[in-house]
Design goal:
With 283 residues, this protein is α+β, with helices and mostly antiparallel strands. The protein is 39% helix and 27% strand. It is built from six helices and twelve strands. It has a seven-stranded antiparallel sheet, sandwiched between helices. The longest helix is centred in the middle third of the chain and has 56 residues. The N and C termini lie far apart (91 Å). About 2% of the residues have low confidence.
Length: 283
């Protein structure tokens, strides 16, 4: 193997890995990537690619979403003694090809490394917030301690941002559940009034409704609604993913008017539905 070929390499990594490396810690990783990813990948442990920042920016097009995007380190090998590099061919989505096109890329991997084996010479951050990915590169100058402090601060900000996002997500989920429960109660109340209106003949002579719930395995319940409408000499059967009034109303209107063409009947019954849902008197 020509070790000079792998003299300058790059690796996308997390803040935690970069901080540990710069502190002088020895890093260990025995992950078999073909097993972990399920795609063609002969690498084991830490993966590196040949090249400097230009090659890293191009590689990010097919590595994005696969690797950690916290930081990219450009490293120079300075000691091959006792180092076993594993050359590998790995398959990724082709950034220049079609939806299902792939590209085979060369990598090297090793299970252990530290700064006695390779030295970081520059680092880069990528901003993915715009249309194009923008890289910001810095040469590794001065004391490593200064870079470590900067990375630790970015790591803290990242963790705090994730905590806020998780908190916001949990609040939205809780609010969605609350609204779903509220809507379910309102729907049940509406359905009781609708059934009473049916018994009183308010919906029209002979008009009947039936609601059934079916559940398949662990999937969410599907509700089947059937309306028998003598005025059109037919029955309407449709399914709802949840007991939601607006979904029922819109589906009913679509079936009666859009599919069958009975606009007057659809308008009249939907008007009655709205009054029942809003607990208005029906005369």
């Amino acid at each position: 193997m020509n070790k000079e070929k792998h003299y300058i390499v790059f690796r996308f990594m997390s803040y935690a890995e970069a901080i540990a490396l710069l502190r002088g810690e020895k890093l260990h990783n025995e992950k078999v990537w073909q097993v972990a990813t399920g795609r063609k990948n002969d690498s084991i442990g830490f993966c590196f690619m040949d090249g400097d920042k230009e090659e890293a920016e191009y590689a990010f097009q097919y590595l994005s979403g696969i690797v950690s995007e916290d930081i990219c380190l450009i490293l120079r090998f300075n000691n091959f003694s006792g180092v076993t590099l594993r050359e590998a061919v790995c398959t990724y989505s082709d950034p220049c090809g079609g939806w299902f096109d792939t590209t085979d890329e060369q990598e090297v991997s090793l299970t252990d490394y530290d700064i006695s084996i390779m030295t970081p010479i520059r680092y880069g951050f990528v901003d993915c917030s715009g249309i194009d990915d923008i890289f910001e590169w810095h040469d590794m100058l001065g004391e490593r301690a200064d870079v470590i402090r900067m990375l630790e601060e970015r790591k803290r900000e990242q963790e705090e941002r994730k905590r806020r996002e998780q908190k916001d997500y949990e609040a939205k989920i809780a609010e969605a559940r609350r609204m779903e429960e509220l809507e379910a109660r309102r729907f049940n109340s509406f359905w009781k009034r609708l059934c009473e209106a049916e018994k009183q003949g308010i919906l029209g002579k002979g008009t009947k409704m039936e609601i059934n719930a079916t559940q398949f395995g662990t999937l969410k319940k599907t509700f089947t609604i059937e309306f028998v409408l003598p005025e059109i000499g037919d029955s309407i059967l449709f399914k709802l993913s949840s007991l939601n009034y607006e979904e029922l109303r819109d589906e009913f209107y679509s079936q009666v008017y859009s599919c069958l063409g009975y606009k007057d009947i659809a308008d009249k019954l939907v008007k009655t539905f709205n009054k029942l849902y809003n607990e208005e008197e029906i005369h």
